[in-house]
């Protein structure tokens, strides 16, 4: 049965009958919305020819069109096959979350007359659902089609898929711009692919469970085995391999370029790390334009001049360009430096999603071509995603010849081996893949000979080797020969192959073990990766020797640790036996891992603490390792303080360490570990430590970090002087504010009633940075929370002291008494997000758009509020996302994130609430969740570690850790200043700083209602109480309502006004007697934009009070109020096209006296053509700014 029938419907029928009409409407809409990460309105799309004319490429290069709409629509990924045909996936379903059959497809594009343009298009497969990656090989087509990786075959030669196999399933669809992607053949014959940080996946494959998010995975095409190659980064999209076979990826939001190594764990954009992870960072210090990357190609073709070869070309979606980085070696890893952009589109619709080298040696660039770069825009307005366009370009140097017709699958082994000499990487890789798939015995000898031919180019030799490796034809005899070859990359790949085939040859293992001290770092790195994979290689000894031989390498220690620490669960005695003898006992590089090893051993159930004591004694015996000893003691102390280390284990540790600690303490503070030894010894009430530690905290001459560590020890051990010392500290007015904040946060470690006695009377006098910290601490203990709530109940503290997040936490996590107290004071506490936050966002938009702020003062506001959890331009704490590149795509996004933080929240940024067995309540972001402990990152960046045995309840909140109600903590001036800072792309002192999109001041005089907008007031019941004022009354309510669609007012009128004129004195009108204009609807209407004109211009008006209200859920709520300003003159604008709409049952305006003395004299509402009185729900593409 054809695949089209298996997937239940034919794409062509859907397009013809249902889909294309809606696509046409989408494409033709007026474009007035400013999308995220764009500086202005995108404008209309360009034709392919117009787009090419605007592109900039280096001298000598030109851009050619290979394919475009209608042959190519919404392209996502591409690849070439052995005939030079181009396979492209198209997605009309994006950004759909639901799995199942869809409307997406795979096309095969052919240039049959070799003129450089596609002239034949075949639909290979249909019914797919966001196919985000594609590769051709091993008799079929591999497709990432979450939740599956599919293998599609054409069994009858008609270029139509008629057989489907699910290779792997379990990939998530929680974030459909982070789906499994970039299927790419690796040099080792595996199929590699990527997955994103917010796409939660659970692959069950052959009795193994893989739970992961951001990762580089691989599949063996022969065995169908699936495994994770490494983990980390953000939303990676694009895999490339250099001539050494090293993997590189491009990624979004965080740094853009990463060198990925097997078994490594890399920096994550968000979410917890596995226990004991030592993360690896990127290989760049620079940034290009913005931070959204899609696709990467290691370009190596003789069709371009040499200066454009051997570098990485990366698609920059926000920049609309191809960025270039060049690699430099840095030990076993790399460091990348920027080069000038290779292509600049000068068209914001240009979205380079994939880049590949073609058979003619040119770079091919696949262009999604859409106005919306960001997933958030596509999710909010999927109907506005342009689904009628797509382009494929070729960047050609001078008159580079077109590729001739070829079919590598039909070539002989000899012909394919000859192609390994090609100057175009395309042919080398394609010939290598075909040879590997063919796995011909006849090709083994000539390939081996080519590998060993030192006169052949290095790249040719490597492809010959990879052909053998991909075919799984590398014999032990040849491997042994390679392991002693002078070329380090041959040695390296001979080592790697042993892991691929799970070698158990002791002769090979013996040779590999000798390479632990190889002169080349790449070889040593590969040995470290292999160490735990083969039986005849002593894992720990191998890893330690590699580490000892790599004293200055940036990457190898991380890889060694990632492969070493799992061994410590069962092989700690073996590790200690090696570490306590030469050469490791005195080697600084191997000893540097002892603090991590100490933490790992202590976290392993059933492992004797005697082993930890051995490590401490080892460091203590080496005068050159005092710094490492201090760190080791800190790790032990932290576990004692968090109660991971208690009871008999702690008592045994005291016995084992008594002599070492005594020796350190006798040396005095000249020893770097002196204070750490004292903190640890205090855990078992050592007499000397009982004197030292209180003195440390009490001394203002000590560094703050040392004083806080001392306080931690005093509180967790219940030292008799702790309370008195804390009292004395708070009585000293000379204390630094930053230090005060750290002391406050540390007070949660005790349950003493001295804490509320100290903090409650000081709440109003604490700085704006420290008051929230004090409140958080007071909420951690039920008895303290009761005291705080009592202060609120009696009116000593305002009810706004506690945010809704805190109240929700108290009700759901704390004691029943606390919950009842909360309900007595606040009533029933809602769960989840407050829907009225939409109204607050609109109010704040009015505020920040109508006033000029000072970004320098805004930095001060940021530091005291936002900087407790966020980094911006490198400053602040890293608790929530780094907002340098997150959450500030445009003003609408920024307003929503600040004032409605739980509207859109990633799982990794949901607050986690922990209730301990002793009643302490903690809330933060989850950093670690292991069998031994839970680690939370709290406000201000402080981490709290809770022993697993001390966790009573752990709940993930439905709301963000960022609290609602920030507008209640700040004055209006502070909010305006804060947004003056947040809306800049760079710090205010940077001359290149610009406003983010949508943040430019809005001049109401330039607003005009386009003809396509509908005025909801036309269908409302409109009324006024003007009739109750007899003198000079004029007009009817419907006279004011302008209909943009008809370009006229709703009712004919001479003046289009309503009011009481003639200089009538109406006297003092309080709000209950206000002049009103009201509109009500039978059913709620969605509203996001309101415009009102002011008073009649010829009437002398006093300053008049006004209130604008909306009826929401049966209650009149204030949108805005004021005195003078709007009503007395000018225009009023509320909301904005594309903003989140609010369901309103009614709308009204009230005019009244500003006080008890000022009379109101003649009231007029006036109409204004093209503007007034308007209530509507405008989509983002509506442009209301006069052109």
From TrEMBL:
Entry keyword set: Heme, Iron, Metal-binding
Residue ranges occupied by any Cytochrome c domain in the UniProt entry: 853-986
SUPFAM superfamilies: ARM repeat, Cytochrome c, Soluble quinoprotein glucose dehydrogenase
One example GO MF annotation: metal ion binding
Domain of life per record: Bacteria
InterPro entries reported in the protein's UniProt record: 6-blade_b-propeller_TolB-like, ARM-like, ARM-type_fold, Cyt_c-like_dom, Cyt_c-like_dom_sf, DUF7133, Haem-bd_dom_put, Membrane-bound_put_N
Protein name as it appears in the record: Dehydrogenase
Species whose genome carries this gene: Blastopirellula marina
């Amino acid at each position: 049965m054809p695949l089209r029938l298996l997937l239940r419907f034919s794409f062509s029928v859907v397009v013809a009958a249902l889909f294309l009409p809606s696509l046409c409407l989408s494409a033709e809409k007026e474009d007035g919305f400013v999308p995220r990460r764009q500086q202005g309105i995108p404008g209309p799309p360009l034709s392919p020819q117009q787009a090419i004319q605007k592109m900039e490429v280096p001298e000598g290069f030109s851009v050619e069109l290979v394919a475009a709409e209608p042959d190519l629509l919404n392209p996502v990924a591409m690849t070439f096959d052995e005939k030079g045909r181009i396979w492209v996936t198209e997605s009309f379903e994006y950004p759909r979350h639901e799995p199942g059959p869809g409307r997406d497809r795979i096309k095969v594009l052919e240039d049959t007359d070799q003129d450089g343009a596609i002239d034949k298009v075949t639909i290979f497969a249909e019914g797919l659902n966001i196919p985000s990656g594609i590769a051709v090989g091993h008799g079929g087509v591999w497709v990432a089609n979450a939740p599956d990786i599919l293998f599609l075959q054409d069994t009858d030669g008609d270029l139509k898929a008629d057989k489907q196999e699910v290779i792997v399933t379990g990939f998530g669809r929680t974030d459909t711009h982070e789906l499994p992607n970039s299927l790419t053949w690796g040099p080792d014959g595996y199929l590699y692919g990527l997955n994103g940080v917010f796409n939660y996946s659970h692959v069950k494959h052959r009795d193994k469970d893989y739970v992961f998010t951001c990762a580089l995975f691989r599949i063996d095409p022969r065995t169908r085995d699936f495994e994770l190659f490494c983990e980390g980064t953000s939303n990676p999209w694009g895999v490339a391999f250099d001539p050494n076979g090293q993997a590189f990826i491009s990624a979004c939001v965080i740094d853009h370029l990463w060198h990925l190594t097997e078994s490594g764990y890399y920096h994550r954009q968000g979410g917890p790390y596995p226990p004991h992870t030592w993360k690896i960072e990127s290989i760049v210090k620079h940034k290009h334009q913005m931070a959204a990357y899609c696709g990467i190609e290691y370009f190596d073709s003789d069709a371009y001049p040499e200066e454009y070869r051997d570098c990485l070309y990366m698609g920059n979606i926000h920049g609309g360009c191809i960025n270039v980085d060049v690699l430099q070696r840095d030990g076993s890893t790399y460091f990348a430096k920027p080069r000038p952009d290779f292509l600049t589109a000068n068209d914001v619709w240009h979205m380079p999603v994939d880049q590949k080298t073609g058979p003619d040696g040119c770079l091919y660039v696949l262009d999604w071509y859409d106005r919306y770069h960001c997933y958030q825009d596509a999710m909010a307005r999927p109907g506005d995603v342009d689904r009628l366009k797509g382009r494929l370009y070729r960047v050609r140097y001078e008159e580079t010849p077109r590729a001739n017709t070829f079919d590598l699958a039909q070539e002989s082994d000899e012909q394919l081996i000859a192609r390994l000499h090609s100057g175009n990487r395309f042919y080398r890789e394609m010939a290598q893949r075909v040879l590997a798939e063919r796995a011909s015995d006849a090709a083994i000898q000539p390939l081996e000979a080519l590998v060993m031919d030192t006169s052949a180019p290095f790249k040719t030799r490597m492809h010959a080797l990879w052909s053998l490796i991909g075919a799984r034809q590398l014999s032990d005899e040849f491997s042994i020969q390679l392991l002693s070859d002078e070329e380090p990359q041959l040695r390296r790949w001979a080592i790697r192959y042993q892991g691929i085939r799970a070698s158990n040859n002791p002769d090979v293992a013996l040779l590999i073990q000798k390479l632990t001290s190889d002169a080349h770092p790449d070889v040593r790195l590969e040995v470290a990766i292999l160490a735990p994979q083969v039986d005849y290689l002593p894992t720990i000894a191998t890893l330690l020797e590699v580490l000892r031989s790599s004293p200055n390498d940036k990457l190898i220690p991380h890889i060694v640790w990632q492969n070493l620490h799992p061994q410590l669960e069962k092989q700690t005695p073996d590790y200690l036996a090696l570490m306590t003898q030469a050469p490791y006992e005195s080697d600084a590089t191997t000893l540097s891992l002892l603090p991590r090893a100490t933490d790992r051993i202590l976290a392993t159930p059933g492992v004797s603490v005697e082993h930890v004591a051995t490590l401490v004694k080892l460091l203590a015996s080496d005068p050159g390792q005092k710094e490492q000893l201090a760190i080791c003691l800190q790790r032990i102390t932290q576990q004692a303080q968090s109660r991971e280390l208690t009871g008999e284990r702690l008592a045994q540790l005291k016995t084992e360490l008594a002599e070492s600690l005594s020796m350190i303490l006798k040396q005095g503070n000249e020893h770097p570990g002196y204070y750490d030894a004292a903190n640890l010894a205090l855990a078992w009430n050592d007499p000397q430590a009982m004197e030292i530690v209180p003195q440390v905290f009490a001394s203002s001459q000590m560094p703050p970090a040392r004083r806080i560590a001392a306080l931690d020890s005093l509180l967790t051990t219940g030292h008799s002087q702790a309370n008195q010392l804390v009292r004395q500290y708070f009585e000293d007015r000379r204390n630094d504010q930053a230090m005060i904040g750290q002391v406050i946060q540390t007070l949660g470690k005790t349950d003493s009633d001295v804490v509320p006695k100290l903090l409650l009377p000081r709440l109003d006098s604490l700085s704006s940075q420290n008051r929230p910290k004090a409140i958080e601490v007071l909420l951690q203990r039920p008895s303290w929370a009761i005291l705080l709530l009592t202060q609120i109940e009696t009116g000593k503290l305002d009810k706004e002291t506690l945010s809704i997040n805190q109240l929700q936490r108290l009700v759901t996590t704390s004691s029943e008494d606390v919950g009842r107290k909360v309900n007595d004071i606040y009533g029933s506490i809602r769960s989840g997000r407050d829907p009225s936050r939409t109204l607050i966002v609109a109010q704040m938009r009015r505020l920040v758009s109508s006033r000029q702020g000072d970004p320098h003062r805004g930095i001060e506001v940021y530091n005291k509020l936002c900087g407790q959890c966020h980094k911006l331009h490198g400053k602040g704490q890293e608790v929530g996302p780094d907002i340098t590149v997150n959450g500030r795509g445009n003003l609408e996004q920024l307003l929503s994130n600040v004032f409605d933080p739980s509207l859109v929240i990633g799982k990794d940024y949901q607050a986690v609430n922990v209730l301990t067995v002793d009643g302490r309540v903690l809330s933060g972001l989850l950093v670690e969740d292991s069998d031994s402990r839970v680690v939370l990152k709290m406000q201000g960046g402080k981490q709290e570690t809770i022993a697993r045995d001390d966790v009573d309840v752990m709940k993930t909140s439905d709301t963000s850790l960022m609290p609602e109600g920030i507008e209640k903590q700040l004055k209006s001036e502070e909010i305006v200043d804060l947004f003056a800072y947040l809306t800049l792309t760079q710090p205010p002192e940077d001359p290149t700083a610009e406003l983010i999109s949508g943040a430019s001041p809005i001049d109401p005089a330039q607003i005009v209602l386009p003809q396509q907008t509908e005025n909801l007031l036309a269908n409302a019941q409109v009324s006024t109480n003007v009739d109750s004022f007899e003198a000079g009354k004029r007009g009817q309510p419907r006279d004011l309502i302008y209909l943009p669609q008809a370009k006229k007012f709703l009712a004919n009128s001479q003046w289009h006004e309503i009011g009481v004129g003639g200089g009538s004195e109406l006297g003092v009108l309080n709000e209950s007697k206000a002049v009103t204009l009201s509109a009500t609807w039978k059913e709620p209407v969605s509203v996001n934009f309101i415009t009102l004109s002011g008073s009649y211009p010829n009437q002398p008006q006093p300053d008049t009070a006004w209130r604008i209200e909306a009826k929401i859920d049966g209650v009149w709520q204030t949108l805005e109020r004021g005195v003078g300003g709007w009503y007395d003159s000018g225009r009023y604008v509320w909301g904005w096209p594309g903003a989140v709409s609010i369901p309103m049952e009614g709308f009204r305006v009230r005019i009244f006296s500003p006080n008890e003395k000022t009379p109101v004299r003649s009231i007029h509402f006036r109409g204004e053509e093209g503007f007034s009185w308007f209530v509507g729900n405008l989509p983002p593409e509506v442009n209301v700014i006069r052109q």
